[in-house]
Amino acid sequence: MTTEDLTGFQTPGRGRGILDIFRWHYLLRLLIRKGTSTRYRNSVLGWTWSYVKPAAQFLVYYFVMGVILQFHKDIPNFAIYLFSGIVVINLFNEAFGNATNSIVDNRALVKKIYLPRELFPIAAIIGALVHFLPQIAILLFVCLLVGWVPSFAAIGAFLLGMIIILAFSLGLGLFFGAFNVRYRDAQNFVEIIKMLSTWTAPVLYGWAMVQATLPAWAFHIYMVNPIAVAVEYLHYAFWDPTVENGAGFPPHMMWYTVGALVFSAVMIAIGQLTFRRLERGFAQDL
Amino acid sequence: MEKTMDQRPRIIVDGVRKDFLLRHTHSLKEAFVARIQRKNAAPTTFQALDGVSFEVGEGESVAVLGLNGSGKSTLLKLVSGVLEPDAGTVLTRGRVAGLIEVGAGFHPDLSGRENVYLNAAILGMNEAETDARFDDIVAFSEIGEFIDQKVKHYSSGMFVRLAFSVAIHVELDVLLVDEVLAVGDAPFREKCTKKIKELAEQGKTMLIVSHSLGMVKDLCDRGVVLRKGKKIFDGPVDEAIKALQG
């Protein structure tokens, strides 16, 4: 058989990684629809929960940070400031958490049928994005009430923030999702990262307070974190236009943005490589 | 038959070895501690397949025979791409679809209709192809008006019939069949066998794993016999069955 012409032959089980979403876009669409339509199965309130949960979370933070700790004195329109940061954290936690569990949750399929397994974390992340839209709707509604007007700068900042946070979630999600198959310890790492995510970005306070406390190099590290950069872009998009003299971007924001984008891209590369390496064992280890 | 048809094989299995690792560590902590203590952290290996080679030609129906644990299902999973071999190569030509554990992709909270589309997509079909076959799929499954009910309300028989019906209507060149014919009641089983025969007559290539020797004799002309992961016979199906029993 060595002399045979092997054109047109494929090695089963070899995909093209995350690029497969283009060839398998139809399945991806169905997987996302499955995720969104079964999310609130057997639930009376259904999608209302997507509004209730962030609202409850917001009220708690607002009461503790704004009313008890009096943060609203330093930051005008503190409610909008807080909420536009929280939605980023929620999106990150949801996307990253779902992506991590996506392979294990789909074990029935992974063990029996070959399809590019990257589809599962990607569908999980897009599903999280769909889930995030109600929160943005609430935020927009409140912003419009206090006189927010859309601008190209605001929309651009919002989209850039989204790209950064989704890319970062995808990189981490691929990495931990693959790891989670063999060692369920990954889930606990992820819990810790999710718990810390709120505190690694200027959500409950302003970046100026961090700058005043940390040495310059530490502040640079703090600000190059993709979550912090995305939060700042959402502040710029939704909160800045609603106040007289907002905090604006921290200095060197362009470099932080480049840093965050590079960091997210590297994370996707690491995630994809790890995923590919561990993918060989998925069917056995599940 | 020998018009312009491609005479090259559809499946090539060449010197394939598959080891399963029997891991003794299940968490990072255990793996770490075992490494520190230099205990037998190295997982024990179990050889499921050892140097198996054969080819399946265009339009051939080949049975893979063997007792439990002989590596039949592992072999099918290697051909479908779910597992990768540790040594040797597996190559396929054309669209490969498996009747392997049908219903793996079904979601109980979706309707029969939604599940048909989802599973057809999982098996590699696009929307237009599924649309074109949808009526055939429903007719074959005999689900009828229940197609818009949630699958969790189906009886197990209905569930299996619909799942099988999706899988058998997938556009394919190579069909892998693993024991699924043991599903459903006798009339439905007969219908499935008939459908598989029909596909075989259309020149589809088949690789079939089954314990039902009668069915194997009926569907296949050639048999490959495995014993403890090694190929011990490859030839006409009658002789293969003798080799299995002997």
Automatic annotation (TrEMBL), chain B:
SUPFAM superfamilies named in the record: P-loop containing nucleoside triphosphate hydrolases
Specify whether Protease is a keyword of the entry. no
GO function term, MF aspect, one: ATP binding
InterPro entries xref list: AAA+_ATPase, ABC_transporter-like_ATP-bd, ABC_transporter-like_CS, ABC_transpr_TagH-like, Bact_Polysacc_Export_ATP-bd, P-loop_NTPase
Ranges for the ABC transporter domain?
Answer: 28-246
Any one Gene Ontology cellular component term annotated for this protein: membrane
Q: What is this protein called?
A: ABC transporter ATP-binding protein
Organism of origin is: Orlajensenia leifsoniae
